[in-house]
TrEMBL record:
It comes from Psophocarpus tetragonolobus (Winged bean). This is Microtubule-associated protein RP/EB family member 1C. The keyword Cell cycle applies. Residues 154-167 have a biased composition (Basic and acidic residues). PANTHER family: MICROTUBULE-ASSOCIATED PROTEIN RP/EB FAMILY MEMBER. The keyword Amino-acid biosynthesis does not apply. GO terms for molecular function: microtubule binding.
């Protein structure tokens, strides 16, 4: 009976893991590129990470090491992630790649076909890390919706650097609480100083300094938006630069390197002025090259001689065919008379 119970429990455990993996794969495939998940803001993503894992991240790209992704997946599928292999103290790209290998292994177990662009994520670019974290939030919310209890501090104890990460987040949270507690007192002191001050210029200066302090989060959001736009512009720049580089390499092919068309293309590629003269100069180069080829190329002359010879041969062949057709229509007596006339005319020794 004991053996049969063990077999049945093992089988049910396997079945539950299989169901979880199938469900995870289905959830992952249902998240398209135009899903609402990719329109979630950075502040919402950060609050979700910090509340789920009890961290204090201020930027999404701080999770570029991959350790946060592993623990988020561990919170979604408890026991599926080998947390002892996760390194929260990863600084180099090699250490970060090891974390992403752990994440990819869990993806394979759950039959998740989401592609992880490790080479972009480890560089800490804001846009790439934001997009991947938006996908992670959508997936984790669709699987469990936070229905089970999860202790992130306890799970992070077995990770390399996990204990230090928990201490840093706790200290930062304590410092933030202290700063918020000191804000009312500092504002009260500032008001008292403003009332006691008799110089209106000092009061105007203090009033002018007040709006930037209150508009700090707004400025941070603007800075974040500018960083994202710069990142997208850099991607677009690299894309078109790679295309221009391919054209340049093609123009350096020995077979076509000295042709007028290639010279015109290089004229446009290496132009430093934006006045539009490069295109007109390139068109002039192509037209001059055509005239030189038509006037000086021996190949063109030989081709013309060949074409004239061929037309002359065709005319001769046509005349012969015409004469043969005329002879075919004559009677036998007329043919004999014509042959005799020919022999008489060709030979000076024969008389007719």
């Amino acid at each position: 009976m004991a053996k049969s119970w063990e077999i049945s429990s093992f089988t049910s455990h396997d079945i539950s893991e299989k169901k979880i993996s199938e469900r995870g794969g289905e959830m992952a495939t249902n998240i398209g590129i135009m899903d609402a998940a990719y329109f979630v803001g950075r502040s919402e993503i950060l609050s979700w990470i910090n509340s789920t894992l009890q961290l204090n991240l201020s930027k999404v790209e701080e999770a570029c090491s991959g350790a946060v992704h592993c623990q988020l997946l561990d919170a979604t599928h408890p026991g599926m992630v080998p947390m002892h292999k996760v390194n929260f103290d990863a600084k180099s790209e090699y250490e970060m790649i090891q974390n992403y290998k752990v994440l990819q292994d869990v993806f394979n177990k759950l039959k998740i076909t989401k592609h992880i662009e490790v080479s972009k994520l480890v560089k800490g670019r804001p846009l790439d890390n934001l997009e991947f974290m938006q996908w992670m939030k959508r997936y984790c919310d669709s699987v469990n919706s936070g229905q089970h209890n999860y202790n992130p501090l306890e799970r992070r104890e077995v990770c390399k650097g996990g204990r230090e990460t928990s201490k840093k987040s706790a200290n930062s949270q304590a410092s933030n609480k202290g700063s918020t507690a000191q804000r009312p007192q500092s504002s009260h002191n500032a008001r008292r100083n403003e009332v006691s001050s008799a110089n209106p210029t000092n009061q105007a200066a203090k009033v002018s300094r007040a709006p930037p302090a209150g508009g700090g989060p707004v400025y941070e959001e603007k800075i974040t938006e500018l960083k994202l736009s710069i990142d997208s512009l850099e991607k677009e720049r690299d894309f078109y630069f790679a295309k221009l580089r391919d054209i340049e390499i093609l123009c350096q092919t020995p077979e076509i390197e000295h042709s007028p068309i290639v010279a015109a293309i290089q004229k446009i590629l290496y132009a430093t002025d934006d006045d539009g003269t490069a295109v007109t100069e390139a068109q002039a180069m192509i037209s001059v090259g055509r005239k030189e080829i038509e006037g000086l190329s021996p190949i063109a002359e030989v081709s013309e001689e060949k074409s004239s010879l061929e037309t002359h041969k065709r005319k001769n062949i046509a005349n012969i065919d015409f004469e043969a057709a005329g002879l075919a229509t004559l009677s036998p007596r007329q043919r004999l008379s014509d042959v005799s006339d020919v022999h008489c005319s060709e030979s000076p020794l024969m008389t007719c």
